[in-house]
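Data card: per-record layout.
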Amino acid sequence: MLYSEYFTFLFAVVEFIAYRRYSL
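The structure for this 24-residue chain is written out next.
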């Protein structure tokens, strides 16, 4: 497993959660 893929996935999840929090 490459760290780049892990960080990319983690960043996408965090950004998605932040987007939902801002939308509320």
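Known properties of this structure: DSSP finds one helix and no strands in the chain. Residues 4 and 10 are 10 Å apart (CA to CA).

See the next section for split statistics.
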